[in-house]
Amino acid sequence: MTFSGALTLTDLNDYITPSQACIKPVQQSNAPQNDRAPGDAATVIQIDASGAYYEVGRSADSNGGSKKLQTAEISLNDCLACSGCITSAESVLITLQSHTEVLSVLAQNPSPGAPGHRVPVLSIAPQSLASLAAALPAPIPVARMLRRVRAFARRTLGFAHVFDTTFAREIALREHAREFFERKEGAPGAPLPMLASACPGWVCYAEKTHGEMLPFIAATKSPQQVMGTLVKEWLAAHYWDRRPDEIYHVAVMPCYDKKLEASRSDFYNDHYATRDVDCVITTGELLLLAQEHGVDLSLPVPGEDDAPIPISSTTPTLPDLLTPPGSSSGSYLHSLILAVARASQRPLTLESKAVRGNADYVEHTLRDASSGDTVFRGATCYGFRNLQNVVRRVGRAAGVQVGRGAAGRLAGGLRSSATREVMACPGGCVGGGGQLRAPERHSKTSADADGTPLWNTRAWTREVDRAYWGGPARPGPGSGDLSNKGNNKASCSPTLELSSGTESDDRVEALVARVFLDLSAPTGPQQEQEVGTGAGSGPGPESRALDEARRRGLFRTEYRAVESEVVGLGVKW
Amino acid sequence: MDVDLPYRVVSVADLSGHDDRAWHVAWNPAKPLLATCSADKSVRIYAYTPDPSPNFVLHTSIPTGHTKTVRGIAWSPSGHTLATASFDANIGIWQREDQDDAGEAVGGEWECVTILEGHETECKSVAWSPTGTFLASCSRDKTVWVWEAQPDADFECMGVLMEHTQDVKCVAWHPREEILASASYDDSIKLYLDDPSEDWFCFTTLTGHASTVWSLAWAPNGQYLASASDDRTVRIWKRITEHEWKCVLVLEEHGRTVYSVTWGVGKPGKTDSGSESLGWLASTGGDGRINVWAFEESPEATNKRPPKSRLIARLENAHGVNDVNSIAWCPRKGYEDLIATVGDDGVAKVWKVASV
Prior knowledge:
The structure holds 2 protein chains of 2 kinds.
Chain A (H helix, E strand, L loop, with lengths): L42 E5 L5 E5 L8 E3 L7 H5 L6 H10 L2 H10 L10 E6 L1 H10 L6 H15 L4 E4 L1 H19 L15 H10 L13 H18 L6 E7 L3 H6 L5 E2 L4 E2 L3 E4 H10 L39 H12 L4 E7 L6 E8 L5 E9 H16 L7 H4 L9 E5 L33 H14 L32 H18 L20 H15 L18
Helix pairs in contact in A: 4-5, 4-14, 6-8, 6-11
Chain B lengths: L6 E9 L6 E6 L5 E6 L4 E6 L7 E7 L7 E6 L6 E5 L4 E9 L5 E12 L6 E6 L5 E6 L4 E7 L3 E8 L6 E6 L6 E5 L4 E6 L5 E7 L6 E6 L5 E6 L4 E8 L2 E8 L6 E7 L11 E10 L4 E8 L10 E8 L8 E6 L8 E6 L4 E8 L1
Antiparallel strand pairs in B: 1-28, 2-3, 3-4, 4-5, 6-7, 7-8, 8-9, 10-11, 11-12, 12-13, 14-15, 15-16, 16-17, 18-19, 19-20, 20-21, 22-23, 23-24, 24-25, 26-27, 27-28
Protein name (chain B): Probable cytosolic iron-sulfur protein assembly protein 1
Pfam family, one (chain B): WD40
Organism (chain B): Lactarius akahatsu
């Protein structure tokens, strides 16, 4: 299967061993050829005991010597372009993107100021922080865990900056909502229902096996890749006075497939020959780094309960832990619900229903409060199984699914119009394949009443979910008193208020506007100035069109279906 | 043929027509129809006249549209719907075109009403749950999928079970409860249940076969499961407690791989000692042999005792020199002594197990 949901490094066994189409042991070079009888090969290839390939001449004009052939290496990009095997790609990236790779880059990094020095920057996903926080013998709020990770990464590993990815997510959510309204207005080639794009497992699966789904998947970049843009193009260029290739950007993610995402060619800067995110490690690998350095994340660090730096558009830093209400997988659907509610002239009510009591498939409906008309439908769909149903329903509605007879006649289901937050892992991102395993104390609950063993991973995923929400819902000005001393009560997602935003929303809005203004402007440090909401949209239509193109370039991406040519090994039974 | 056995396997019909090896045979549980599928990508459906001398005629041949071998077929309990499992990685769902107001198929062509996509590679087997609520499928991609049948030929995926470490050869539902069994090239059998608040999960793994497990058949009373293997044996697993199954018997009467096993209610009638009849088990495989066993259990039998088994009939070279790939008892009342087989010769054969 394609997903890292249940995949950990130890599970990697290539059940479809690198498929036939994938084996390209010999690098071809187009050397001039002598004339000879058609079909008469000039050389033969021999393989020695060690598996090396030799080209041996056999025609009269050759001297009979043999030449060792260069072995072509299969790069991650080769794997991404192939639908043949899945786990081979995973095993390739283990060497390319691993915690040992991080250590080796940091060890070889020339000292600051020396030529070739790269500024090391670490960005961590809030789900990773939740996993680390929940796994401690005495769980702590995620805000405190962020301080501890920051302290460890700066002091021990030598990172210059440590951020969480929530501000990047904030930008992604805004762009996602913008894209939704564009689609609603009938943007060409961008049909509804829109399917969220933050899950690389889902995107990769759709590209490999359901190309017909790609037009529905939001083109908005994931938080990880928006973070890449923020670090390498905004902070580096405008505030640190660095080129993108002078930054070494490491992301800590709950998911193995984020490694694949970071490797996509869209996220590679050709001009500077650098990736927006240079290396992705999982939550588990970050913990391994800490353990290998003898750092215990259960121990407090100085200032870990200090109030965060207030959000401001005048200081070039990213606010900590913006956690919009909704889902622990990024609130993609809920941010749309809020956007639709805020755009509505009339009061709306929200109705949420777990289909068959399944927490991994929850439908949300916005209705006009007075008429009861449905204004918006959406669903959060997690896990491979629910993803299959998304593919089926959306495919059916759009008439893109194969099927004859009645299948064609029945096109257009009731639930087909729903926008969906799709995540490949059961439980969503908090249950990602790169997260920490359930600690010992959890394994005791793994049998039901009559002794039937049950998977305990679900219970553990729920605990990580609680940890995700356990921190302050929205730290920042106004809620600066982080009164969470020992207060790690199990809380759930804050209630969704359909009313308009708060003061801190305005400050985030201003910072987002600042980012966009800076990125639209010629490179160079900006003057410290307060930027108002909506700045940058003042000038005429031409400049607005330019702004729009620029924004798309910064915050959107695209997908490509991968043709399957590999299946069909001539199975006989 | 062994002369000392009390029953004989008597030929009733020889049905040729497939252009390539025939893989699977399935009796419609409600109507006088028999379906076979083949590497020629077609499904052939035969109709038959009532006993005592049923006459089989071709009812229809469905080209299916599958792009590769049709490896497995299954009738829904109502008999209205046929599912096909193909090497093209898809499951096809077939119904007759014309239905009356009650949804009863009354005529017309068999048409594909939907395709279940999801498996990555060759599908090997497909099976309906006893109520027709669920459909299970399995594949070389090592997964077992559970689908829920919904109105308007819609299906919802209820679970993707990634428990086996190799190709999954067969899926089979318990005759009364919603318990699913799967058999694999990894030599194991796995049993699954639905956790109402979560997903389907594997609650036990049965190990013991020394090679690929090709086929599964539940006893009509649901207390036993039979498995056929490349290790040339048929194993009988007994329900010890609600969620615990143990191998209680190993039948070694085949000279080559046992490809298929089927468990019917057998000929109605009294057993010798007042024991409860557990029905008749038939097996076949690479040796071309059909074996038929009668099983019974005395009322005072303890939990771990094997059932009493008796080989009652045997036929050699059922399809000449060819492998026999599938065998199935007719489930319809009054026809319980009929079995059907298909083989590498592309022929479907119907047999009656009759007293000597």
